[in-house]
Amino acid sequence: MVNLILSYGATVNQRCSQGWTALHEAVSRDNTEICEILIRAGTTINPANTYCITPLIVAAQRGLMRALCYLIEKGAGVNMQTCEGFTALHEASKNGHREIVALLLTKNADANKPDNSGLLPLHVAAQHGHHEIVSLLVSVTSRAKLRHSWISPLHLAAQYDRHAAAAVLLKTGADVNATLPHSHSIEYADRRTTALYFAVAHGSRRTAEVLVNAGASLNLDPVSPLLMAAHHGCVSTVSLLLERGADMNVRLPSFATTFPALVTLCKNNLPLLKCLLNHGCDALTCFACTYGADAHPPLRGSSIRTAVSHRYDCTLPLNCDERTERVTQFCEWISTPAMCKWVGPIIDLLLEHVGHVQLCSKLSELLDGREEWHAIKRKSLSPRPLQHLCRLSIWTQMGRDRRRSITSLPLPSRLKTYLSPDD
User: Fold this and answer.
1) What InterPro entries does this protein map onto (predicted)?
2) How distant is the alpha carbon of residue 266 from its chain centre?
3) Are residues 236 and 263 in the same domain?
4) Is the pLDDT confidence value at 95 over 70?
């Protein structure tokens, strides 16, 4: 039929509304027989459609090996770029066509030609998690090009939770502590810089573990990755970072507190608060109040009201540019509208990790506000059981790594159960 139409004078390079020629269509169906007819009739070997996509790029996008080999044999350009700067190698890397990538590399495809956003094929493969293609591209990608790109392939693998691709990059020499250039870091309110922070910020738990195991530093970002993990409420990531030495006493850049700042990120997330307490979070400071049994003055100043109330209602205070001068106490934070409905369960959990404490007038007032919380107040007023005080004392001696100590020590099972933070 193609021969018949051509014999009646059809224009072989005629384009459709999207700029496709008959050669594009033939290639998209992997039909080299029709490609041969069209080429004999004089079709252009590198016709670009409206978006500058050539037939060879179509073949690379769709993993059409036969059509690709045919076009290369006929002289199609392997390094032509689309309007967005993508080459056939970019497209094959994006779509996971490993054999196509391998073939293009043998045909002098340039692995160091960036797209319009500055990303190389290696970036694209890492972003989409094609670790076998990452292995192919690492050795042919210029280290200098990677150093001068605005983001590393490892950052992209971390952002999209491509843990296998991240592992390959690290194994082949990627710097686990490479940082984002300042010109791009400042585009984020939290000034994030490391791949680990990207992984934590995007909930990429598996990749975060790969990075930590490879020696990722927990202290290179202006905002601690631990704060971001707590903000996301990911107990497993918080536990991972704490076990690897993350600072439990890290401060929020924009919200100063007299108690551990991490507690403020446990809104309606008691499992997260329990995780922090089990790792040694200082619960005692939550009951330290400068006003004690005296009446608490109302919060003054719009900045304080915003920081303590509005921020915890809708946004996370991890903006490095905003800071409050006044230090907020636990009783002030928990009495805000966003938190007051969680007062009882939170204080009840905190009491399990302290000895005898004196509730300030504000906390007492909050517990008096709901009948189901009266038992919690009575619990705080009663002498703490000796069994509870002994457990706290032993936990203190064990330090932050108490869970591992309990597991490793040659203790009777009954004693391990007694000491287990989970029980």
Assistant:
1) Ankyrin_rpt, Ankyrin_rpt-contain_sf, SOCS_box, SOCS_box-like_dom_sf
2) 19
3) no
4) yes
